[in-house]
Amino acid sequence: MFKKVLIANRGEIAVRVIRACRELGLQTVAVYSEVDRNALHVRYADEAYCIGPAPARESYLRIDRIIDVAIRSRAEAIHPGYGFLAENDQFARACAEAGIIFVGPPPEAMQAMGDKIQARLTVSKQGVPVVPGTYEPLRDDEMLAAANQVGFPLFVKAAAGGGGKGMRRVERSEDLPSAIARARSEAESAFGDGTVYLERIIKPARHIEFQILADARGNVIHLGERECSIQRRHQKMVEEAPSVALDDELRDKMGRAAVAAAKAAGYVNAGTIEFLLDKDRNFYFLEMNTRLQVEHPVTELVTGVDIVKEQLRIASGRPLSYQQDDIRPRGWAIECRITAEDAYNGFLPSTGKIISLHEPTGPGVRLESALFEGFEVPLHYDPLIAKLCVWGPDRATAIMRMKRALSEYKILGVATSIPFHQRLFQSTSFIGGVFDTTFLDERFTLEPGGSEEHARVAAIIAALITHERRQHALSIPPPTSSARGGWKRFVVWEGLR
Predict the structure, then answer these.
(1) Closest by alpha carbon to 170, among 159, 151, 155?
(2) pLDDT tens digit string along 90-127?
(3) Residue 124 neighbours by CB under 8 Å, 6+ apart
(4) Mean of all residue pLDDT scores within the chain
């Protein structure tokens, strides 16, 4: 096992990886932008290096600066987390060229499965059912001709895309040319690749994904499924494991298909095979995520497998710690993505300082977060600020536990998605497991926000809390040079511009 790992990320996922490294006895190196100087992952790591200004393109997306920090700090491996450079095959290649271990799949597998068109071809050759659509890059006129065979309604989707970017829904043939143009433009801007393809819309459908682990010795297993159908505009909001839609027979069939898809790509490390499940219980390969998923904690809670530790072990050349027969999921887990967004105002991003924070605890509660009182939520990054997870022996218990945890979770200073989640967990459709990927967009409504009077009261309370904290801070004497305690090595990289 290598001894030192650089975490090329920020926020709660950087903290999550640092904790796994600590438990394996590994030293950690954090990188941070100027706006993240006081972030929790910077405080937790053994070393921390500034790599640039706040915009991600000038810091967290700078491959050259991250590789240089790894060399300077003598880090032997880099864990990319998720987002940023996690699925960038050029980053994986740069790590290899510098003699640094990339904690993820080989760049060849990442490239093959990162291109959605290539991924569809790869898995279909192994007999894995694929959503009907096109299987090669086409010119606009060729796509217009192919659309009638694919069938309407359909999606125009970016081949290099994800997260709903470069995707357009098309109901009628006359709307297709403009949808292709907009999707190509958005894909080029977001991913540097304007290639798009057509995919039939499966409706109604559930979004079911299978977590897989694969080592360099050819061993591949799956850790069961996650239900990810609660989505707002193609962005996941709630995930759970297992899914109410699967029985043991279908679960086994989909699990074997997920393993076959991973083997077809020559995959190594942790990844996720995503499927759509239609109303007749037919499933179709959607895509593969060649990284750690945001929702990995729900799988960890029901299986007992620490996926991040397994990633690190696999990257060091060790075989999987588990065989398929060892994986026996137990109970039910649910995750709510807590975002800094105003749920009552179209989920607009919310920024500001966390002036009061009370985090839920108690039986069966797990919180993945990098928040603390005084933390400034920046505008420059994804609004995800925490993941609230619960476990229970069954789904009913897990739902009640989540409702309790949400009621305890108090974040003052920024608007969050907590009110949305509280409303969702009152929905009889959600509680009954009767939903699909269109549920939030078509059949769910969020009640109006509080009155202006409530807003004024909240503002007064916030001001009082801030005043009280300032008074308390003034009463604390400054530290002296004789104070005991360890020191972290902070390195400010000068001359970045």
Answers:
(1) 155
(2) 999 999 999 999 999 999 999 889 889 999 999 999 99
(3) 130, 135, 285
(4) 91
Domain ranges for the chain: 4-103, 132-200, 205-443
Which structure tokens are listed for 130?
Answer: 């694929």
Q: What's at 438, amino acid-wise?
A: T
Pick the catalytic residue: 291, 313, 337, 401? Answer: 291
Annotated catalytic, 423?
no
CB-based contact 42:36 (threshold 8 Å): yes
Q: What long-range pairs does 399-407 form, CB within 8 A, spacing at least 24?
A: 399/334, 399/425, 399/431, 401/363, 401/364, 401/365, 402/334, 402/336, 404/360, 404/362, 405/360, 405/362, 405/365, 406/336, 406/360
Query: Of all helices (H) and strands (E), which one includes residue 429?
Result: helix 428-431
Dist. CA 34–CA 488, nearest whole Å: 17
The gap from C-alpha 459 to its chain's centroid, in whole angstroms, comes to: 32
Determine contact, residues 366/390, Cβ cutoff 8 Å.
yes
342: alpha, beta or left, given left = phi > 0 and alpha = psi -120 to 50?
beta
Greater confidence, 112 or 253? 253
φ and ψ at 301, to 5 degrees? -65, -35
The percentage of residues in the chain with a pLDDT greater than 90, rounded to a whole number, is: 84
Kindly indicate the confidence band of residue 462, based on its pLDDT and cuts at 50, 70 and 90: low
What Å distances lie between residue 271 and 9, 111, 220, 300, 336, CA to CA? 18, 13, 11, 14, 21
Q: Say if CB 67 and CB 98 are below 8 A apart.
A: yes
Instruction: Give me the pLDDT at residue 495, please.
Output: 40
Confidence band, pLDDT 50/70/90 cuts, at residue 451: very low
Instruction: Say what the pLDDT of residue 378 is.
Output: 95
Burial class (CB in 10 A: 0-12, 13-18, 19+), 174: exposed
CA distances from 466 to 373, 410, 476 (A): 11, 16, 16
Q: Write out pLDDT tens, residues 34-89.
A: 999 999 999 999 999 999 999 999 999 999 999 999 999 999 999 999 999 999 99
CA distance 194 to 255: 32
Q: Report, at the CATH architecture level, how domain 132-200 is classified.
A: 2-Layer Sandwich (3.30)
Residue 73: partners with Cβ closer than 8 Å, 6 or more residues away: 4, 6, 29, 47, 49
Q: What is the CATH number of domain 205-443?
A: 3.30.470.20
Domain 4-103, CATH number (from 3.40.960.10, 3.40.50.20, 3.30.930.10, 3.30.70.1530): 3.40.50.20
Contact 296, 10 (CB under 8 A): no
